[in-house]
């Protein structure tokens, strides 16, 4: 086998892994978080598989992570990257554990240079995930009689972030980027009440909630010498408008986001990065909290085919009580280039633990990323 | 590169999302909103209600009631059989006829309803004039019903006898057969509650009268120690009475080389008319809602459907509440059903009815309990389709088969007017965080 040339084993591995991810798609699943149900949703991780394998620490410096625009300056030729994720989540409420599974397609970035200094890119990522299902059983008193009921409320969909971004290098050590974001998407929602008494008809209400909003982001990359790079970004979003059949059902503020990161690459076989992000979700929902999130990660080996490790921590934006739920996680992954560097496949695994008042979650997420540079 | 394309195609379905249902920890980790049930009795929703009579006559009913409840009702069934030829041809294609000589007859009557608690239940058969028809009344037929009966059978006594079990008889009559020494035969049919009663009649009990064109008319009275009431099937239910003539005739030797020979035959005759009469005058319609009786009465109830119930709720149960003016005077066995059917177009008494989304309620005589009828499917249809006519007709099932009728207070009686008890679920507040 010649390195960098297409061969049967690589292709088989790709197909098998893709099938493995697709296979459980028909089963009940969720990658969302219960903390997002009573809120605007669960914020998506705007990270490629490579960045997510480092706990998200490499996201500001990874051109194919939609988190920051300035990092697009590293795109030397047209390329695209897609991320897929399969998660297994265990929800623990008062000692009762419920296993859930889900698949997602959380990010896509396609970009390429225009001229020597400018790179443009587009794509989408998950801004707020609003997929969940809850069921409750109770009794109600109707007509002076106690009637058992089971309620089920489901939501299937998300708010997607469609991004059009550009980045340019001001000089050898400084690059800037900016992006326009269109927040759009919809959820299919259904609420069903099943009566234990057949004298009552079961009732189901279905609707589709569409979402719209807009945002803008700016970011910058500063190279401090050959081995140190610093990133900073800011993003502001408008209100998120939820509409049902053309009528506005809700309008909620979206947060401003601030973040900074630092990357240290002392040589070609090692890189270490850390990021910190702050978002003000307090005004978004009654149970909203401002969040601070951090991550720390490393990549061992060449940037394309290295072994990655990372850790993350911080807060979830929505939860009961005066303190925000917390999220900590560890992640790892590897990458493999093929076709003479024209393509790269990334694998990652992430373990998250979320804790809040009255609820905790443990999440295993298996990641598959494909990056193509034709 | 082609492998990358394949991989991307395989990865695309990952974009599909699935929903997992987990037990909800509400309200902390549930959507901001609940499925809220409301329960309201709309006391003034029934408006412009009216009653009309004459939809089905007694002779058009699916059954005819014979009852004798002292102080309550005396109801008598009767039927007029089709003509019977008094002559017959003895050879195909030959117009020459010879007289037939009746030997006997077997009359079948089907008892479609009876009180199984009745003791010493007896049916008496009377000859009636063949001119009996819809113009006859209880009074006009009373003399015939007070003459000596043609035959009588004690149904309770026959059923108390051991059933016939020999195979040859069962091959002809069926599994459950009872008989008595007078030749009466009773078999069970359908659900086991329907009795098929055969009367064996001789030529005196069933004479072939040429002046009457061979027609016969009979009436049935019922008697018992108590609970004397039965319903007999009619032409409309295809459970009519049926008289089978058994006869013989002689083929003259003048037309054949054989000596005079006797041949026999049989000929069934169904009624051309069946009905029943009772001693209680049909009460006139009043301000109340009348359902039942013979001729049958129906009540049209119009519903002033609130606008908010059209688009903001989902009806999960709807119950019509009717308050009887008084108890139904009848035997307990004469309970009956009333049915509500939606009106497709409201043109008053002759409004066409749809045979869907019906509501049913059973009326038990001698009680004044409030009647509740489930109309959930009908009301849900109204809530979903604003083009529907929000009215329904109440009628008896089956109609005009009995003297029984019930009267409910109408909207003109404010304290007891009809009401609609609606349980509904409000629209879920989707979209709220």
Description:
- The complex is a heterodimer of chains A (about 375) and B (about 425).
- With about 375 residues, chain A is mainly beta.
- Chain A has one domain: Porin (Beta Barrel), CATH 2.40.160.60.
- Chain A contains two helices and 18 strands.
- In chain A, strands 2-3-4-6-7-8-9-12-13-14-15-16-17-18 form a 14-stranded antiparallel β-barrel.
- In chain A, a hairpin with a 2-residue loop joins β10 (about 240-245) and β11.
- Chain A is elongated.
- Residues about 1-30 of chain A have low confidence and may be disordered.
- In chain B, strands 4, 5, 6, 7, 8, 9, 10, 11, 12, 13, 14, 15, 16 and 17 form a 14-stranded antiparallel beta sheet that branches.
- In chain B, a hairpin with a 7-residue loop joins β6 and β7 (about 95-115).
- Chain B is mainly β.
- Chain B is built from six helices and 26 strands.
- Chain B has helices at about 1-10, 140-145, 155-160, 165-175, 310, 375-385; strands spanning about 20-25, 35-40, 45-55, 65-70, 75-80, 85-90, 95-115, 120-130, 150-155, 175-180, 185-190, 195-200, 215-225, 230-235, 240-250, 260-270, 270-280, 290, 295-305, 315-320, 335-340, 360-365, 370-375, 390-395, 405-410, 420-425.
- Helices cover about 10% and strands about 40% of the residues of chain B.
- Chain B starts with a helix and ends in a 7-residue tail after the last strand.
- The radius of gyration of chain B is 31 Å and the shape is elongated.
- The chains are: A mainly beta (about 375), B mainly beta (about 425).
- Chains A and B meet through α1, β2, β3, β5 and β6 of A and α1, β1, β20, α6 and β26 of B.
- β5 (about 130-140) of chain A pairs parallel with β1 of chain B, so a sheet runs across the interface.
TL;DR?
Chain A is mainly beta.
């Amino acid at each position: 086998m010649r390195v960098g040339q297409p061969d049967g084993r690589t292709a088989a591995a790709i197909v098998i892994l893709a099938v493995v991810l697709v296979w459980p798609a028909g089963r009940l699943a969720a990658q969302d978080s219960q903390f997002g149900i009573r809120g605007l949703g669960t914020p998506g991780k705007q990270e490629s598989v490579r960045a997510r394998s480092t706990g998200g620490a490499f996201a500001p410096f990874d051109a194919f992570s939609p988190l920051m625009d300035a990092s697009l300056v590293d795109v030397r030729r047209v390329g695209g990257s897609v991320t897929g994720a399969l998660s297994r989540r265990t929800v623990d409420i008062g000692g009762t554990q419920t296993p859930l599974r889900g698949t997602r397609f959380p990010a896509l970035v396609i970009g390429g240079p225009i001229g020597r200094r400018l790179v443009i890119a587009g794509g989408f990522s998950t801004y707020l995930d609003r997929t969940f299902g809850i069921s409750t059983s109770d009794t109600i008193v109707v007509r002076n009689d106690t009637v058992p009921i089971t309620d089920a409320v489901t939501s299937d969909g998300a708010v997607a972030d469609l991004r059009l971004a550009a980045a340019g290098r001001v000089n050898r050590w400084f690059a800037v980027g900016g992006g326009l974001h269109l927040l759009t998407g919809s959820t299919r929602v259904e609420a069903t009440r099943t009566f234990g008494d057949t004298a009552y008809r079961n009732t189901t209400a279905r609707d589709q909630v569409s979402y719209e909003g807009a945002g803008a982001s700016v970011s910058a990359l500063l190279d401090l010498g050959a081995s140190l790079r610093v990133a900073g970004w800011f993003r502001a979003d408008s209100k998120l408008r939820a509409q049902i059949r053309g009528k506005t059902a809700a309008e909620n503020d979206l947060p401003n986001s601030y973040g900074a990161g630092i990357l240290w690459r002392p040589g070609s076989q090692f890189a270490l990065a850390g990021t910190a992000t702050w978002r003000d979700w307090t005004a978004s929902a009654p149970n909203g909290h401002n969040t601070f999130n951090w991550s720390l990660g490393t990549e061992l080996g060449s940037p394309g085919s290295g072994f990655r490790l990372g850790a993350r921590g911080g807060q979830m934006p929505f939860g009961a009580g005066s303190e925000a739920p917390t999220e900590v996680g560890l992640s790892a992954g590897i990458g493999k280039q093929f076709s003479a560097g024209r393509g790269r496949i990334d694998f990652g695994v992430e373990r998250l633990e979320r804790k809040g008042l009255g609820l905790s979650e443990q999440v295993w997420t298996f990641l598959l990323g494909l990056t193509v540079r034709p | 590169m082609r492998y990358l394309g394949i991989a991307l195609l395989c990865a695309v379905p990952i974009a599909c999302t699935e929903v997992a249902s987990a037990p909800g920890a509400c309200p902390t980790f549930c959507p901001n909103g609940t499925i809220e049930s409301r329960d309201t009795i709309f006391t003034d929703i029934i408006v412009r209600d009216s009653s009309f009579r004459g939809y089905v006559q007694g002779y058009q009913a699916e059954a005819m009631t014979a009852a004798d409840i002292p102080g309550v009702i005396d109801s008598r069934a009767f039927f007029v059989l089709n003509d019977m030829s008094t002559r017959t041809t003895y050879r195909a294609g030959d117009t020459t006829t010879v007289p037939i000589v009746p030997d006997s007859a077997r009359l079948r009557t089907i008892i479609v309803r009876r009180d199984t608690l009745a003791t010493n239940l007896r049916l008496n058969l009377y000859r009636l004039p063949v001119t009996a028809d819809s113009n006859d009344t209880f009074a006009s037929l009373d003399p015939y019903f007070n003459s000596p009966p043609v035959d009588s059978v004690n149904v309770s006594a026959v059923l108390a006898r051991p059933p016939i079990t020999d195979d040859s008889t069962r091959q002809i009559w069926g599994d459950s057969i009872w008989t008595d020494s007078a030749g009466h035969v009773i078999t069970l049919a359908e659900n086991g509650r329907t009795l098929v009663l055969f009367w064996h009649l001789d030529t005196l009990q069933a004479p072939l009268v040429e002046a009457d064109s061979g027609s016969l008319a009979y009436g049935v009275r019922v008697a018992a120690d108590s609970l004397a009431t039965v319903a007999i099937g009619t032409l409309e239910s295809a459970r009519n009475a049926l008289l089978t003539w058994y006869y013989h005739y002689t083929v003259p030797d003048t037309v054949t080389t054989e000596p005079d020979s006797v041949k026999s035959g049989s000929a069934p005759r169904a009624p051309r008319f069946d009905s029943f009469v009772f001693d209680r005058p049909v009460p006139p319609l009043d301000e109340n809602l009348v359902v039942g009786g013979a001729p049958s009465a129906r009540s049209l109830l119009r519903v002033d459907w609130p606008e908010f119930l059209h688009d903001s709720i989902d009806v999960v149960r709807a119950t019509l509440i009717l308050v009887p003016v008084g108890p139904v005077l009848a035997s307990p066995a004469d309970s009956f059903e009333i049915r509500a059917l939606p009106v497709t177009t409201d043109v008053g008494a002759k409004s066409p009815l749809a045979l869907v989304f019906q509501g049913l309620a059973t009326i038990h005589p001698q009680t004044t309990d409030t009647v509740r009828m489930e109309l959930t499917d009908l009301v849900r249809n109204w809530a979903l389709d604003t083009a529907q006519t929000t009215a329904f007709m109440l009628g008896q099932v089956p109609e005009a088969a009995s003297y029984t009728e019930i009267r409910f207070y109408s909207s003109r009686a404010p304290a007891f007017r009809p009401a609609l008890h609606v349980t509904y679920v409000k629209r879920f507040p989707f979209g709220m965080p």
